[in-house]
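Example record used in the benchmark description.
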Amino acid sequence: MKNTFKILSLLLALALLLGCLAACRKDPAENSGPEDTEHQDYAAFALDMNSDTLKQVVTVKMFIDGDTTHFNVPSSVSDSGVLKARYLAVNTPESTGKIEEYGKKASNFTKTKLSSAYEILVESDDANWNLDSTGGRHLVWIWYKPDAQSEYRNLNIEILQEGLAVASSSANNRYGDTCTKAIAQAKREKLNIYSGEKDPDFPYGEAIPVTLKEIRCNIEEYNGKKVSFEGVITKNYNNGVYIEDYDAETDRYYGIYVYYGFGLTGDGLDILEVGNRSRIVGSVQYYEGGGTYQVSGLTYRAMKPDDPNNIMLISKGNAAAFVPVSVPTLAGGKVTVDLGEDKGEKEFDCAFLAMDTSVELREARITDVYMTSNEDSSSYGALSLTVEYGGKTITVRTNPFYGEDGKLIDGKSWIGKTIDVKGVVAYFNGNYQVRVFALSDITFY
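Model output (C-alpha coordinates):
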Protein backbone atom coordinates (compact mmCIF):
# COMPACT_ATOMS: atom_id res chain seq x y z
CA MET A 1 0.00 0.00 0.00
CA LYS A 2 2.86 2.31 0.89
CA ASN A 3 4.57 1.48 -2.41
CA THR A 4 1.39 2.27 -4.32
CA PHE A 5 1.09 5.64 -2.58
CA LYS A 6 4.75 6.45 -3.39
CA ILE A 7 4.19 5.58 -7.06
CA LEU A 8 1.07 7.74 -7.25
CA SER A 9 2.90 10.62 -5.59
CA LEU A 10 5.77 10.34 -8.08
CA LEU A 11 3.36 10.26 -11.00
CA LEU A 12 1.53 13.34 -9.69
CA ALA A 13 4.82 15.22 -9.23
CA LEU A 14 5.90 14.24 -12.75
CA ALA A 15 2.60 15.47 -14.20
CA LEU A 16 2.96 18.79 -12.41
CA LEU A 17 6.55 19.15 -13.68
CA LEU A 18 5.53 18.42 -17.28
CA GLY A 19 2.71 20.94 -16.98
CA CYS A 20 5.11 23.61 -15.78
CA LEU A 21 7.52 22.86 -18.62
CA ALA A 22 4.72 23.08 -21.16
CA ALA A 23 3.59 26.40 -19.73
CA CYS A 24 7.16 27.71 -19.91
CA ARG A 25 7.39 26.82 -23.59
CA LYS A 26 4.20 28.68 -24.56
CA ASP A 27 4.48 31.57 -27.03
CA PRO A 28 4.53 34.80 -24.97
CA ALA A 29 1.90 36.22 -27.32
CA GLU A 30 -0.44 33.45 -26.21
CA ASN A 31 0.14 34.23 -22.56
CA SER A 32 -0.50 37.97 -22.62
CA GLY A 33 -1.60 39.63 -19.44
CA PRO A 34 -3.20 43.04 -18.92
CA GLU A 35 0.28 44.62 -18.96
CA ASP A 36 0.89 43.35 -22.51
CA THR A 37 -2.48 44.09 -24.07
CA GLU A 38 -3.59 47.39 -22.59
CA HIS A 39 -2.69 50.41 -24.69
CA GLN A 40 0.19 52.44 -23.26
CA ASP A 41 1.00 56.06 -24.09
CA TYR A 42 4.76 55.63 -24.34
CA ALA A 43 5.27 59.19 -25.62
CA ALA A 44 4.19 60.60 -22.27
CA PHE A 45 7.22 59.53 -20.19
CA ALA A 46 9.04 62.33 -18.37
CA LEU A 47 11.85 64.38 -19.88
CA ASP A 48 14.81 64.51 -17.49
CA MET A 49 15.92 68.14 -17.62
CA ASN A 50 18.93 67.29 -15.39
CA SER A 51 20.46 64.68 -17.71
CA ASP A 52 23.81 65.26 -19.44
CA THR A 53 22.19 65.62 -22.87
CA LEU A 54 22.07 68.93 -24.74
CA LYS A 55 18.67 70.60 -24.88
CA GLN A 56 17.36 73.62 -26.75
CA VAL A 57 13.94 75.23 -27.07
CA VAL A 58 13.29 75.84 -30.79
CA THR A 59 10.72 77.07 -33.30
CA VAL A 60 9.88 75.48 -36.63
CA LYS A 61 11.45 77.04 -39.70
CA MET A 62 10.27 74.47 -42.22
CA PHE A 63 8.50 71.11 -42.28
CA ILE A 64 10.13 68.56 -44.58
CA ASP A 65 8.56 65.14 -43.97
CA GLY A 66 7.63 62.78 -41.16
CA ASP A 67 11.12 62.43 -39.70
CA THR A 68 12.87 65.64 -40.80
CA THR A 69 12.16 69.21 -39.71
CA HIS A 70 14.22 72.41 -39.86
CA PHE A 71 14.23 74.44 -36.64
CA ASN A 72 15.33 77.97 -35.79
CA VAL A 73 18.08 77.84 -33.15
CA PRO A 74 20.63 80.22 -31.60
CA SER A 75 24.04 80.53 -33.30
CA SER A 76 25.53 78.72 -30.30
CA VAL A 77 23.82 75.55 -31.57
CA SER A 78 24.31 76.14 -35.31
CA ASP A 79 26.24 78.93 -37.03
CA SER A 80 23.51 79.23 -39.67
CA GLY A 81 20.78 79.66 -37.06
CA VAL A 82 19.04 76.58 -38.47
CA LEU A 83 19.16 73.04 -37.13
CA LYS A 84 18.15 70.47 -39.73
CA ALA A 85 16.74 67.77 -37.49
CA ARG A 86 16.69 64.09 -38.41
CA TYR A 87 14.55 62.31 -35.83
CA LEU A 88 16.34 59.61 -33.87
CA ALA A 89 15.01 56.02 -33.84
CA VAL A 90 12.39 56.52 -36.57
CA ASN A 91 12.26 56.08 -40.34
CA THR A 92 8.97 57.29 -41.77
CA PRO A 93 7.89 56.37 -45.32
CA GLU A 94 9.09 58.78 -48.04
CA SER A 95 7.02 61.77 -49.08
CA THR A 96 9.62 64.07 -50.73
CA GLY A 97 11.15 61.83 -53.41
CA LYS A 98 9.67 58.51 -54.40
CA ILE A 99 6.35 58.60 -52.56
CA GLU A 100 5.67 55.60 -50.30
CA GLU A 101 2.54 54.31 -48.59
CA TYR A 102 1.73 56.26 -45.41
CA GLY A 103 4.43 58.81 -46.25
CA LYS A 104 2.00 61.70 -46.50
CA LYS A 105 0.16 60.60 -43.38
CA ALA A 106 3.40 60.51 -41.39
CA SER A 107 4.41 63.93 -42.72
CA ASN A 108 1.01 65.42 -41.86
CA PHE A 109 1.11 63.83 -38.38
CA THR A 110 4.40 65.53 -37.55
CA LYS A 111 3.26 68.85 -38.99
CA THR A 112 -0.02 68.77 -37.06
CA LYS A 113 1.63 68.00 -33.72
CA LEU A 114 4.32 70.67 -34.01
CA SER A 115 2.18 73.35 -35.68
CA SER A 116 -0.16 73.46 -32.70
CA ALA A 117 2.50 72.94 -30.01
CA TYR A 118 2.88 75.47 -27.21
CA GLU A 119 6.62 74.77 -26.99
CA ILE A 120 9.15 72.55 -28.76
CA LEU A 121 12.48 71.30 -27.44
CA VAL A 122 15.19 69.28 -29.19
CA GLU A 123 17.49 66.95 -27.24
CA SER A 124 20.71 65.22 -28.24
CA ASP A 125 21.23 61.52 -27.56
CA ASP A 126 24.36 62.20 -25.53
CA ALA A 127 26.45 65.23 -24.52
CA ASN A 128 26.96 66.35 -28.16
CA TRP A 129 24.94 67.61 -31.11
CA ASN A 130 25.60 64.64 -33.41
CA LEU A 131 25.29 64.67 -37.23
CA ASP A 132 23.79 61.93 -39.40
CA SER A 133 25.65 60.12 -42.20
CA THR A 134 25.04 62.98 -44.66
CA GLY A 135 26.84 65.43 -42.39
CA GLY A 136 24.10 67.98 -42.84
CA ARG A 137 21.43 66.96 -40.36
CA HIS A 138 21.45 66.63 -36.57
CA LEU A 139 20.19 63.44 -34.92
CA VAL A 140 17.84 64.55 -32.15
CA TRP A 141 14.85 63.77 -29.99
CA ILE A 142 11.85 66.05 -30.45
CA TRP A 143 9.79 67.02 -27.39
CA TYR A 144 6.71 69.21 -27.48
CA LYS A 145 4.09 70.61 -25.11
CA PRO A 146 0.55 70.50 -26.56
CA ASP A 147 -0.40 73.47 -24.34
CA ALA A 148 0.99 75.61 -21.51
CA GLN A 149 -0.26 73.26 -18.76
CA SER A 150 1.02 70.05 -20.36
CA GLU A 151 4.21 68.12 -19.77
CA TYR A 152 6.55 67.44 -22.69
CA ARG A 153 5.72 64.56 -25.04
CA ASN A 154 8.32 62.70 -27.10
CA LEU A 155 7.35 62.98 -30.77
CA ASN A 156 9.83 60.36 -32.00
CA ILE A 157 8.24 57.73 -29.80
CA GLU A 158 4.73 58.98 -30.56
CA ILE A 159 5.39 58.44 -34.28
CA LEU A 160 6.54 54.89 -33.51
CA GLN A 161 3.53 54.06 -31.34
CA GLU A 162 1.20 55.35 -34.08
CA GLY A 163 2.71 52.87 -36.53
CA LEU A 164 3.89 55.64 -38.85
CA ALA A 165 7.55 54.60 -38.93
CA VAL A 166 9.75 51.54 -38.99
CA ALA A 167 12.64 51.09 -36.60
CA SER A 168 15.90 52.93 -37.30
CA SER A 169 18.45 51.72 -34.72
CA SER A 170 15.56 52.21 -32.34
CA ALA A 171 16.95 49.96 -29.61
CA ASN A 172 20.45 51.43 -29.71
CA ASN A 173 19.87 54.83 -28.22
CA ARG A 174 18.99 56.66 -25.02
CA TYR A 175 15.34 55.65 -25.04
CA GLY A 176 15.76 52.29 -26.74
CA ASP A 177 13.57 50.25 -24.37
CA THR A 178 10.64 52.65 -24.74
CA CYS A 179 11.08 52.77 -28.53
CA THR A 180 11.02 48.97 -28.71
CA LYS A 181 7.83 48.77 -26.64
CA ALA A 182 6.15 51.46 -28.77
CA ILE A 183 6.96 49.55 -31.98
CA ALA A 184 5.73 46.26 -30.51
CA GLN A 185 2.46 47.89 -29.47
CA ALA A 186 1.92 49.43 -32.92
CA LYS A 187 2.44 46.02 -34.50
CA ARG A 188 0.12 44.34 -32.00
CA GLU A 189 -2.59 46.94 -32.59
CA LYS A 190 -1.98 46.80 -36.37
CA LEU A 191 -1.72 50.55 -36.80
CA ASN A 192 -1.07 52.25 -40.15
CA ILE A 193 1.98 50.66 -41.82
CA TYR A 194 1.41 47.52 -39.74
CA SER A 195 -2.30 47.36 -40.51
CA GLY A 196 -2.06 45.37 -43.72
CA GLU A 197 -4.55 47.83 -45.20
CA LYS A 198 -4.11 50.19 -48.15
CA ASP A 199 -3.17 53.79 -47.47
CA PRO A 200 -6.21 55.89 -48.48
CA ASP A 201 -3.92 58.79 -49.49
CA PHE A 202 -1.56 56.74 -51.67
CA PRO A 203 -2.02 56.78 -55.48
CA TYR A 204 -2.05 53.07 -56.25
CA GLY A 205 -1.69 51.98 -59.85
CA GLU A 206 1.00 51.19 -62.37
CA ALA A 207 2.53 54.69 -62.25
CA ILE A 208 5.49 55.41 -59.96
CA PRO A 209 4.46 58.02 -57.34
CA VAL A 210 7.17 60.70 -57.19
CA THR A 211 7.70 64.40 -56.62
CA LEU A 212 8.71 66.90 -59.29
CA LYS A 213 12.02 67.34 -57.48
CA GLU A 214 12.68 63.61 -57.85
CA ILE A 215 11.85 63.71 -61.57
CA ARG A 216 13.90 66.84 -62.33
CA CYS A 217 16.98 65.74 -60.39
CA ASN A 218 16.94 62.21 -61.82
CA ILE A 219 15.27 62.89 -65.16
CA GLU A 220 17.20 60.33 -67.23
CA GLU A 221 16.27 57.53 -64.82
CA TYR A 222 12.57 58.17 -65.50
CA ASN A 223 12.78 58.38 -69.29
CA GLY A 224 10.06 56.12 -70.71
CA LYS A 225 8.54 55.41 -67.29
CA LYS A 226 4.99 56.14 -66.18
CA VAL A 227 4.90 58.45 -63.18
CA SER A 228 2.37 60.26 -61.02
CA PHE A 229 3.03 63.57 -59.27
CA GLU A 230 1.34 66.76 -58.05
CA GLY A 231 1.85 70.41 -58.91
CA VAL A 232 0.32 73.75 -59.75
CA ILE A 233 -0.54 74.54 -63.37
CA THR A 234 1.14 77.87 -64.24
CA LYS A 235 0.78 78.27 -68.02
CA ASN A 236 -1.16 76.68 -70.86
CA TYR A 237 0.90 76.62 -74.05
CA ASN A 238 0.88 74.72 -77.34
CA ASN A 239 -1.44 71.86 -76.29
CA GLY A 240 0.33 71.45 -73.01
CA VAL A 241 0.82 73.00 -69.60
CA TYR A 242 3.72 74.00 -67.40
CA ILE A 243 3.43 72.59 -63.90
CA GLU A 244 5.57 73.28 -60.82
CA ASP A 245 5.80 72.28 -57.17
CA TYR A 246 7.74 73.48 -54.13
CA ASP A 247 10.24 71.34 -52.24
CA ALA A 248 10.77 72.50 -48.68
CA GLU A 249 14.06 70.71 -48.03
CA THR A 250 15.90 72.45 -50.88
CA ASP A 251 13.71 75.57 -50.77
CA ARG A 252 13.27 75.44 -54.54
CA TYR A 253 10.52 74.97 -57.13
CA TYR A 254 10.74 72.17 -59.68
CA GLY A 255 8.70 71.84 -62.85
CA ILE A 256 8.08 70.09 -66.13
CA TYR A 257 6.11 70.60 -69.33
CA VAL A 258 3.10 68.29 -69.68
CA TYR A 259 1.85 67.70 -73.23
CA TYR A 260 -1.82 66.73 -73.36
CA GLY A 261 -2.17 66.91 -77.15
CA PHE A 262 -5.64 66.40 -78.57
CA GLY A 263 -6.77 63.44 -76.48
CA LEU A 264 -8.36 65.31 -73.59
CA THR A 265 -11.73 67.05 -73.67
CA GLY A 266 -14.28 68.46 -71.22
CA ASP A 267 -13.59 67.54 -67.61
CA GLY A 268 -10.10 66.35 -68.48
CA LEU A 269 -9.09 69.76 -69.83
CA ASP A 270 -10.76 71.48 -66.87
CA ILE A 271 -8.36 69.67 -64.55
CA LEU A 272 -5.45 71.33 -66.36
CA GLU A 273 -6.67 74.91 -66.00
CA VAL A 274 -4.12 77.49 -64.85
CA GLY A 275 -4.25 77.87 -61.05
CA ASN A 276 -5.32 74.29 -60.41
CA ARG A 277 -3.24 71.98 -58.27
CA SER A 278 -3.55 68.67 -60.05
CA ARG A 279 -2.28 65.12 -59.94
CA ILE A 280 -0.69 64.18 -63.24
CA VAL A 281 -0.28 60.63 -64.51
CA GLY A 282 1.78 60.17 -67.66
CA SER A 283 5.04 58.98 -69.18
CA VAL A 284 8.33 60.87 -69.12
CA GLN A 285 9.57 61.26 -72.69
CA TYR A 286 12.58 62.88 -74.30
CA TYR A 287 11.38 65.42 -76.87
CA GLU A 288 13.94 65.40 -79.69
CA GLY A 289 12.59 68.57 -81.27
CA GLY A 290 13.30 70.67 -78.22
CA GLY A 291 16.09 68.68 -76.64
CA THR A 292 14.15 68.48 -73.39
CA TYR A 293 12.03 66.07 -71.36
CA GLN A 294 8.28 66.29 -71.03
CA VAL A 295 5.39 64.21 -69.71
CA SER A 296 2.75 62.92 -72.14
CA GLY A 297 0.15 60.18 -72.50
CA LEU A 298 -2.43 61.71 -70.13
CA THR A 299 -5.86 60.12 -69.81
CA TYR A 300 -9.12 60.95 -68.07
CA ARG A 301 -12.06 58.54 -67.85
CA ALA A 302 -15.06 60.56 -66.69
CA MET A 303 -17.03 57.39 -65.94
CA LYS A 304 -14.28 56.21 -63.57
CA PRO A 305 -12.97 59.37 -61.85
CA ASP A 306 -11.14 57.31 -59.20
CA ASP A 307 -9.16 55.34 -61.77
CA PRO A 308 -5.51 55.57 -60.56
CA ASN A 309 -4.42 56.22 -64.15
CA ASN A 310 -6.58 59.35 -64.35
CA ILE A 311 -5.33 62.89 -63.96
CA MET A 312 -7.08 64.44 -60.94
CA LEU A 313 -8.00 67.87 -59.60
CA ILE A 314 -6.75 68.54 -56.06
CA SER A 315 -7.52 72.22 -55.51
CA LYS A 316 -8.20 75.51 -57.30
CA GLY A 317 -7.07 79.10 -56.87
CA ASN A 318 -3.32 78.53 -56.68
CA ALA A 319 -0.76 80.96 -58.09
CA ALA A 320 2.50 80.62 -59.97
CA ALA A 321 5.57 81.28 -57.80
CA PHE A 322 7.49 83.62 -60.14
CA VAL A 323 10.66 83.18 -58.12
CA PRO A 324 13.00 86.20 -58.45
CA VAL A 325 16.15 85.31 -60.39
CA SER A 326 19.07 87.20 -61.95
CA VAL A 327 20.72 86.87 -65.36
CA PRO A 328 24.02 85.54 -63.88
CA THR A 329 22.13 82.84 -61.98
CA LEU A 330 20.43 81.51 -65.10
CA ALA A 331 23.46 82.10 -67.34
CA GLY A 332 25.92 80.06 -65.31
CA GLY A 333 24.91 79.63 -61.68
CA LYS A 334 25.42 76.28 -59.97
CA VAL A 335 23.64 74.67 -57.04
CA THR A 336 24.30 71.48 -55.06
CA VAL A 337 21.35 69.28 -54.11
CA ASP A 338 21.26 66.48 -51.57
CA LEU A 339 19.65 63.54 -53.37
CA GLY A 340 19.39 61.38 -50.29
CA GLU A 341 21.56 58.97 -48.37
CA ASP A 342 21.80 56.50 -51.26
CA LYS A 343 22.90 59.06 -53.89
CA GLY A 344 24.56 61.84 -51.94
CA GLU A 345 25.05 65.36 -53.27
CA LYS A 346 25.11 66.42 -56.93
CA GLU A 347 25.84 69.74 -58.62
CA PHE A 348 23.40 71.12 -61.20
CA ASP A 349 23.07 74.19 -63.39
CA CYS A 350 20.62 76.55 -61.69
CA ALA A 351 18.80 76.93 -65.00
CA PHE A 352 18.41 73.17 -65.38
CA LEU A 353 16.80 72.84 -61.95
CA ALA A 354 14.54 75.82 -62.74
CA MET A 355 13.43 74.36 -66.09
CA ASP A 356 9.70 74.77 -66.72
CA THR A 357 9.16 76.78 -63.51
CA SER A 358 7.85 80.34 -63.30
CA VAL A 359 10.47 83.03 -62.62
CA GLU A 360 10.75 86.80 -62.48
CA LEU A 361 13.96 87.87 -64.22
CA ARG A 362 15.03 91.18 -62.72
CA GLU A 363 17.16 94.14 -63.81
CA ALA A 364 18.00 92.81 -67.27
CA ARG A 365 19.26 95.31 -69.86
CA ILE A 366 18.28 94.65 -73.48
CA THR A 367 21.35 94.65 -75.74
CA ASP A 368 19.86 93.18 -78.92
CA VAL A 369 16.49 92.22 -80.43
CA TYR A 370 15.72 89.72 -83.18
CA MET A 371 12.25 89.13 -84.66
CA THR A 372 11.37 85.94 -86.52
CA SER A 373 10.53 87.29 -89.97
CA ASN A 374 9.66 84.09 -91.84
CA GLU A 375 5.93 84.40 -92.44
CA ASP A 376 5.66 80.66 -93.04
CA SER A 377 6.99 79.94 -89.55
CA SER A 378 4.62 79.18 -86.68
CA SER A 379 6.70 81.59 -84.59
CA TYR A 380 6.47 84.47 -87.07
CA GLY A 381 6.76 87.76 -85.18
CA ALA A 382 8.23 86.22 -82.00
CA LEU A 383 11.02 88.23 -80.40
CA SER A 384 14.35 87.06 -79.03
CA LEU A 385 15.70 89.65 -76.61
CA THR A 386 19.35 89.38 -75.62
CA VAL A 387 19.54 90.72 -72.06
CA GLU A 388 22.59 91.43 -69.91
CA TYR A 389 23.46 91.91 -66.27
CA GLY A 390 26.77 91.59 -64.44
CA GLY A 391 28.64 90.65 -67.58
CA LYS A 392 26.36 87.67 -68.29
CA THR A 393 23.71 87.37 -71.02
CA ILE A 394 20.64 85.25 -71.62
CA THR A 395 17.77 85.22 -74.10
CA VAL A 396 14.20 86.26 -73.35
CA ARG A 397 11.90 84.66 -75.93
CA THR A 398 8.43 86.16 -76.44
CA ASN A 399 5.24 85.38 -78.27
CA PRO A 400 4.37 87.72 -81.17
CA PHE A 401 3.20 91.07 -79.75
CA TYR A 402 0.92 93.55 -81.54
CA GLY A 403 0.61 97.29 -81.01
CA GLU A 404 -2.59 99.33 -80.86
CA ASP A 405 -2.34 99.79 -84.66
CA GLY A 406 -2.56 96.02 -85.13
CA LYS A 407 1.01 95.77 -86.38
CA LEU A 408 3.69 93.47 -85.03
CA ILE A 409 6.04 95.02 -82.48
CA ASP A 410 9.64 94.51 -83.63
CA GLY A 411 11.15 95.60 -80.30
CA LYS A 412 13.96 97.66 -81.84
CA SER A 413 13.08 100.66 -79.68
CA TRP A 414 13.60 98.51 -76.58
CA ILE A 415 17.37 98.19 -77.04
CA GLY A 416 19.19 99.77 -74.11
CA LYS A 417 16.20 99.60 -71.78
CA THR A 418 16.19 97.72 -68.47
CA ILE A 419 13.34 95.32 -67.85
CA ASP A 420 11.84 92.85 -65.40
CA VAL A 421 10.06 89.91 -67.03
CA LYS A 422 7.76 87.18 -65.77
CA GLY A 423 8.03 83.92 -67.65
CA VAL A 424 8.99 80.25 -67.64
CA VAL A 425 12.53 78.87 -67.89
CA ALA A 426 12.89 77.00 -71.20
CA TYR A 427 15.60 75.45 -73.38
CA PHE A 428 16.22 76.05 -77.08
CA ASN A 429 19.16 75.30 -79.41
CA GLY A 430 21.39 74.25 -76.54
CA ASN A 431 20.75 77.35 -74.44
CA TYR A 432 18.50 78.24 -71.53
CA GLN A 433 16.09 81.13 -71.95
CA VAL A 434 13.08 82.74 -70.31
CA ARG A 435 9.85 82.36 -72.24
CA VAL A 436 7.39 85.26 -71.96
CA PHE A 437 3.79 84.85 -73.06
CA ALA A 438 2.27 88.34 -72.78
CA LEU A 439 3.47 91.92 -73.23
CA SER A 440 2.02 92.72 -69.80
CA ASP A 441 4.62 90.34 -68.32
CA ILE A 442 7.40 92.81 -69.23
CA THR A 443 8.03 95.85 -67.04
CA PHE A 444 10.18 98.61 -68.60
CA TYR A 445 12.32 101.06 -66.62
